Amino acid sequence: MPALRLGSIAPDFEAQTTKGAIKFHDWIGDSWAVLFSHPADFTPVCTTELAEVARRAPDFAKRNVKVIGLSANPLNDHDKWVQDINEYGCKYAPTNVQFPIIADPDRKISELYDMLDAQDPTNRDAKGIPFTVRTVFVIDPKKIIRLTLSYPASTGRNFDEILRVVDSLQIGDKYRVTTPVNWKKGDDVIVHPSVSNEEAKTLFPDFTIHKPYLRTTPLTVE
Ligand code: BEZ
């Protein structure tokens, strides 16, 4: 199986989820998608992560991003665990998990996306078969993989960062800009190196030249 790189087409698959059977590409449709794996149901770090993703559902929706989780447990476990997650909630408020969670007990999709843990002996099922690490795939409406992340089972992800990257990708697709260190929506952006100073005068009238190769500009986006 060729490596999944930035720019690869996200492999299509059929799956059972907590919201019914899906064909992945059809489910994505014209949206962006975040596919994220978590090691196993009824585990503490994962419970906090899924509660947080449920809490941030409006932030994903307003960016036209659909979110889908995955773990290598069967559907009936997922259904029971979702009740626990909603009961636990998160530190801010009760949650209501509405996004689908893929059931992948035979690890078919985990293998397709190279998600399985090869290094943590505690991240395995009772038979010693690895669960997944915490991967994130940001996929655009053309089904192209635009971001990959892999976190160990022991470290919960930062979903603010994932939303921040989506903002950067969406702005970069629309305007000829890149985003600097620790950038967040509303901050100045960088004029793309492929834009000449002549073009920049028209495209970004308020741009500043700090170095010949480093030019920034305010950018008003909706
Ligand atoms: C957790 O979600 O807490 C977890 C899962 C597998 C291994 C270690 C931690």
TrEMBL record:
InterPro entries: AhpC/TSA, Peroxiredoxin_AhpC-typ, Peroxiredoxin_C, PRX_1cys, Thioredoxin-like_sf, Thioredoxin_domain. GO terms for cellular component: cytosol; mitochondrion. Keywords: Antioxidant, Oxidoreductase, Peroxidase, Redox-active center. Residues 4-171 form the Thioredoxin domain. GO terms for biological process: cell redox homeostasis. The active site is at residue 46. PROSITE patterns: THIOREDOXIN_2. Signal peptide: none annotated. One of its GO terms (molecular function) is peroxiredoxin activity. Thiol-specific peroxidase that catalyzes the reduction of hydrogen peroxide and organic hydroperoxides to water and alcohols, respectively. PANTHER family: MCG48959-RELATED, PEROXIREDOXIN-6. Belongs to the peroxiredoxin family. Prx6 subfamily. This is Cysteine peroxiredoxin. It comes from Neolentinus lepideus HHB14362 ss-1. The lineage of its organism: Eukaryota, Fungi, Dikarya, Basidiomycota, Agaricomycotina.
